[in-house]
Amino acid sequence: MGRGASGSLQGQEIAGALSRMPDETRTKLLGAGKSLLRFTLSRGPALALLPVAAWTAEKAIDMHKSGEIHRLWEEAQTSEYSFTVWHALCLQAAVVAVVALFFYFLRPGKGSTYLVDFYCLRPPTRMESSRADMSQGIRIPENGYSEQSVQFMDKVMEISGLGDRTFLPDEVQKGKYQKVEATMAGARVETETALNVSIQHVLDRCGLKPHQIDGLIVNCSAFNPTPSLSAAVVNHFKFKSSIRTFNLSGMGCAASVIGVDLAMEMLANNRNMRIMIAGTENILMNLYNGNQRSMLITNCIFRLGGVALLLSNHPADRRRAKYRLTHMVRTHLGGVDEAYNAVIQKEDDEGKVGVKIGKELMKVAGMALKVNITRLGPKVLPISEQLIFAANFVLRKVFGLSMKPYVPDFTTAFEHFCIHPGGKAVIEEVSKQLKLRPEQSLPMLVPFERYGNTSSSSTWYAWSYVETFQGVKKGDRVWQLAFGSGFKCCSAVWVALRKNDEKHDAWMDVESY
Fold first, then answer.
1. What is the pLDDT of residue 85?
2. Rounded CA gap, 422 and 453, in Å?
3. 453 counts as catalytic
4. What class of enzyme is it (predicted)?
5. Active site residue 299
6. Fewer beta carbons under 10 A from the terminal one: N or C of the chain?
7. What is the DSSP string of 223-281?
8. Which pLDDT score is estimated for 6?
């Protein structure tokens, strides 16, 4: 029997022995092995240098006892050294090169992206809406819903994890008593108010004036008037004429993180720049009044929200910034028809426009997440997790062992998880796949219960929850993960530059979770 076959049999015997162990024993054994591997890899270089240091120290002591060091010193003092002009120039050039390299590697990177501050919109109390209010409104005959559609929406709101104190704009609130009239004027007031209020809060918190903002990125996926929303914001705040503006549309719930990526590219190529990012989603213009079930879901879970944040590479902002962006990974599966059509705005059979959420959404989201974390993992995971993953792959694919694929433990890479809270079922599935502890899942579950799906601002509500109720210590790493139609999955990794445990306005009326 060859060595390969013998090794395969031994591997199967080991796998068999592990499978016969009690689950608790196997879990403890694997945990101890992972801990030992992490310790060895993290302390390995230092441990490997100990014998070298001991040998060097021993030789130095022997040379001192024998008088060799004293002899070499005296010889160096009595010797005469002469250099040609060429040698002197080479030596000078070498010194200059070493000094230049030293300062090159220690210089502050001009491409650093700092998150100075952010603000999550807390709409006024008059806009609070319960599930009963929504249920009352969809039963008004003028709104055009069949009894089957009403029952379906009631069921979705009941099982989705949505709370009784989410927010809807004033024009939609009127739908409790009369038909909702979707007008351009009403939509403008809703969207521009959410954007302007959020931006003003960030300016006030940072002590800045509008003329100190150099870039503006506005996102609203499904409401895009002319002039653009970014132009409306410029007009409201009277930003300077040299401001660089961008208006992102149709990017779905990932739009805010995509805006961060765009800002990162701008900051990498421009010094002393401050960029404001603001995002919301319009509710009024996107209410669907048809009866196709896959297009009714958005009526049930999307609610009013908004966010504004300031990114900068200005030296004056470095000392007060909350976080620094370390990694950005974007995944786009638009080339796959199933992924492209998973979330799509279209007309139903009666010509009524709405956003269809297909049954394949969970499958597509899983595909996008897998591709995204495959690229993200090598950038953030400790080497121990990467080796365990590689060993699992080799044992399964090369030796043919029947083992489950190893899912890397991302809790070893991050202290906090701000993942898009799209709904209770999605949150629970993502938490299970990423092996999150219950307290690590709360920043997704609680914001959805309190605010619903606020589209691109959802991950920021999760982040504000983390700062308010869990606190972020200096050096903590935050994983911001968003999904969007198209289909997109975007990861942003941040590191805390200071302690962040303020109580955000969005949670002022919440004591604790």
1. 63
2. 6
3. yes
4. transferase
5. no
6. N
7. ---SS-HHHHHHHHHT--TT-EEEEE-S-GGGHHHHHHHHHHHHHHHSSS-EEEEEEE-
8. 52
Which residue among the candidates 206, 416, 418, 500 is catalytic per the annotation? 416
504 given a catalytic annotation: no
Q: What is the pLDDT of residues 224-269, one digit of tens each?
A: 999 999 999 999 999 999 999 999 999 999 999 999 999 999 999 9
- Whole-model pTM: value is 0.80
Mean pLDDT, rounded, for 32-46: 57
Identify which of 237, 234, 274 has the alpha carbon closest to the alpha carbon of residue 117: 274
> How many CB atoms within 10 Å of residue 91?
11
The answer to whether 485 and 360 have CB atoms below 8 angstroms apart is no
* Structure confidence at residue 1 (pLDDT): 47
Predicted confidence (pLDDT) at residue 104 exceeds the cutoff of 70:
no
Catalytic annotation, pick one of 253, 300, 489, 490 = 253
Out of 282, 289, 372, 453, the active site residue is 453
Q: Map out the domains of the chain with their CATH numbers.
A: 114-501 (3.40.47.10)
314 is annotated as an active-site residue: no
Structure tokens at 320: 């007060």
Q: What are the angstrom distances between the C-alpha of 271 and each of 103, 113, 230, 261, 379?
A: 19, 11, 23, 17, 26
Q: Rounded CA gap, 234 and 344, in Å?
A: 30
Of these ranges, 69-83, 176-190, 313-327, the one predicted with the greatest mean pLDDT is 313-327
Q: Are 334 and 478 in contact (CB under 8 A)?
A: no
For residue 101, is pLDDT > 80?
no
> In which band, very low, low, confident or very high, does the pLDDT at 513 lie, cut at 50, 70 and 90?
very low
Is-contact 313 114, C-beta < 8 A?
Answer: yes
| Helices and strands in the chain: count of H runs, count of E runs | 18, 13
- Cβ neighbour number for residue 502 with a 10 Å cutoff: 14
Give the range among 358-372, 400-414, 448-462 with minimum mean pLDDT. Answer: 400-414
DSSP string covering 272-318, please?
A: S-EEEEEEE--SGGG---S--HHHHHHHHHB---EEEEEEE--HHHH
326 and 500 Cβ atoms separated by less than 8 Å: no
Give percent above pLDDT 90 in the chain: 57
How many residues are there in the chain? 513
Which is the catalytic residue, given 120, 420, 490, 500? 420
